[in-house]
Design a protein that fits this description.
The complex is a heterodimer of chains A (134) and B (389).
Chain A lengths: L6 H9 L4 E5 L5 E2 L14 E5 L3 E10 L10 E8 L4 E7 L8 H4 L3 E9 L9 E8 L1
Parallel strand pairs in A: 6-8
Antiparallel strand pairs in A: 1-2, 1-3, 4-5, 4-7, 5-6, 7-8
Chain B lengths: L3 E8 L9 H15 L9 E5 L3 H5 L4 H8 L9 E2 L5 H14 L5 E9 L5 H8 L15 H16 L3 H19 L13 H6 L2 E3 L2 E2 L8 E10 H7 L4 E10 L13 H14 L8 E3 L5 H10 L8 H7 L15 H5 L3 H17 L12 E8 L4 E9 L2
Parallel strand pairs in B: 2-3, 2-4, 9-10
Antiparallel strand pairs in B: 1-7, 1-8, 4-7, 5-6, 8-11, 10-11
Helix pairs in contact in B: 1-3, 4-14, 7-11, 7-12
The chains are: A mainly beta (134), B alpha/beta (389).
Chain lengths: 134, 389
């Protein structure tokens, strides 16, 4: 079976305002980032669905020594989506000088995206998920 | 399967080197071959662990060039890539092929040359160990991965971050103290609490001295059967357990304060060896960041989940403690030329079991374990070694 939700399809949808994932027709679990099979039961019987953008912060870090091409500092968080899966995202509209990561663990927010320019080894233009606190 | 033994080890000094990957690999390899009382022509297969030769030197098939350098072009010589555990996979594959009877004598070499790359490029290159499309576009670095692990650990177990940071400082101080007694270590000086806390923030809450350095170096291990080993050397070291596992993206693992790949790998290794964590006398484990050392204590079963930081407070993992960890100085202070790290851990455990470690010797060490982790907890190898004479 062909790969159902590819990176390019996932990104294209986000740019059109849709946050897509996979719903398992066997066990009902959601898989995002997309994979070939369900992240819970391994079934290939999946449907593309629009996901709820709400989630909460599990942990994060403020990165001061960033990879080449990224602004300093860059804040990265792990978010637990209300649909279950965890995703890696940039925390935006937040000031690391006013609050610490420990203080925002558990806080709720909303998933978005930002475009990231291509670099030598990135296989073209990139896209990162973002997270804004409510 | 045949019982496998290690008959020779070699390693270059870790740090900044003017030598090429092949030159460092050949130096370590010849030391290991000489240590085994063998000649290069006795080697039947070469496995080379190297994470990033293509970006460091624009060099692929490094195994073939290394075999040529040793005068043994023609033997099978694949490069093994598994990020920071590349070299341990090279040792494991050498051991598996000898155990299975494909070869009688195999050489595993690990090598890396990272000081030729800038810090920001190294940071990006190392970040290739998280998902290239769904994670690394956020700018997530490896210090960032372990910064997140530190915050998550503190939150999950209800530990004030300041108390956990003091433990991380103690790990850095311990590993520098050990490295100061290791002539092959990159850093030969001890550090103080003040030095630790005065260093720059890399990825909160991790500072410079929480991080292993950018390094060059090579290390090598000669593997053969236990029967051949006893004819070659007076002190063969038996490889009695091999554990292995993998995982994928960081986010897909969910709560990574419990490293499932390590728990799986360690269990396989302990079962094969027929021992428990209590039987281990000395460990070389993957302290790419200070927090990683605590997670490794717990994943290897030395301490219960959420209790590893207390072991640091008690000094249990110091040389002379209950379970000495990283007597070589670890990745933190011995240096971390990624591909070379696994064979260098084996080098240390073999020397510890042979009783050749001088001021950093763990007295009476007979059974040791190595623990190497590639990517974001994504490729774990554990090797259990035992006195074989």
């Amino acid at each position: 079976m062909e790969y159902l939700l590819t990176v390019s399809k996932f990104r294209e949808a986000l740019r059109e305002g849709k946050f897509l994932g996979l719903k398992c027709n066997q066990c009902g679990a959601y898989t995002v980032p997309p994979k070939k099979v369900c992240c819970e039961c391994g079934s290939e019987d999946l449907s593309i669905e629009e996901l709820n953008r709400n989630g909460k912060i599990i942990t994060g870090t403020v990165i001061y020594v960033t990879p080449k091409g990224y602004p300093t500092p860059t804040t990265v968080v792990l978010v637990e989506l209300s649909d279950g899966p965890w995703v890696t995202a940039n925390l935006i509209n937040w000031n690391p000088e006013k609050e610490t990561i420990m203080e925002i663990i558990g806080r709720e927010g909303v998933i978005g995206y930002r475009d990231v320019p291509a670099h030598d080894f990135s296989a073209g233009e990139q896209l990162a998920l973002t997270f804004s606190l409510k | 399967m045949r019982q496998v033994a290690i008959v020779g080890v070699g390693m270059t000094k870790f740090g900044k080197s003017e030598k090429t990957l092949i030159e460092m690999g050949a130096e370590a390899a010849m030391e290991a071959i000489n240590d085994s009382n063998l000649k290069p022509k006795d080697i039947q297969a070469l496995f080379v662990g190297c994470g990033a030769s293509i970006v460091e030197e624009n060099q692929t098939i490094i195994g073939g060039f290394l075999a040529e350098d040793l005068g043994i072009a023609g033997i099978p010589a694949p490069r093994v890539e598994s990020a920071c555990s590349s070299g341990s996979w090279a040792v494991a594959l050498a051991a598996m092929t000898v155990a299975g009877g494909y070869f009688d004598i195999a050489l595993a070499v690990g090598v890396e040359r990272q000081t030729v790359l800038s810090t920001e490029f190294n940071t990006r290159m190392m970040a290739s160990g998280v998902h290239s499309f769904y994670e690394s576009p956020t700018g997530l670095s490896f210090p960032g991965v372990f910064g997140m692990a530190t915050h998550l650990y503190a939150h999950k177990y209800g530990i004030p971050l300041g108390r956990l940071k003091d433990c991380l400082a103690k790990i850095a101080i311990k590993n520098h103290r050990n490295a100061a007694k290791n002539p092959k270590a990159q850093f030969q000086k001890e550090i103080s609490m003040e030095t630790y806390y005065n260093s720059i923030m890399v990825a909160s809450p991790l500072q410079l001295y929480d991080c292993s350095p950018i390094s060059d170096g090579g290390a090598a291990v000669v593997v053969t059967t236990a029967d051949i080993a006893k004819k070659l050397v007076p002190k063969p070291v038996h490889l009695i357990g091999i554990g292995y596992s993998s995982s994928g993206s960081l986010c897909g693992q969910k709560d990574f304060t419990r490293v499932k790949a390590r728990e799986t790998s360690a269990k396989i290794a302990y079962n094969m060896a027929g021992i428990t964590p209590k039987d281990i006398d000395v460990a070389e484990l993957h302290d790419c960041f200070t927090m990683a050392e605590i997670l490794a204590y717990e994943g290897l079963g030395f301490f219960e989940p959420g209790e590893g930081y207390k072991a640091v407070e008690r000094g249990d993992t110091e040389i002379g403690g209950k379970i000495p960890c990283n007597p070589s100085g670890g990745l933190k202070a011995k240096g971390h030329p990624t591909g070379a790290t696994g064979p260098a851990q084996v080098y240390e455990i073999v020397k510890q079991i042979r009783g050749e470690c001088g001021p950093r010797q763990v007295e009476g060490a007979e059974i040791g374990i190595t623990d190497t982790m590639g990517g974001s907890f994504a490729a774990i190898i554990n090797l259990i070694l035992k006195k074989g004479w």
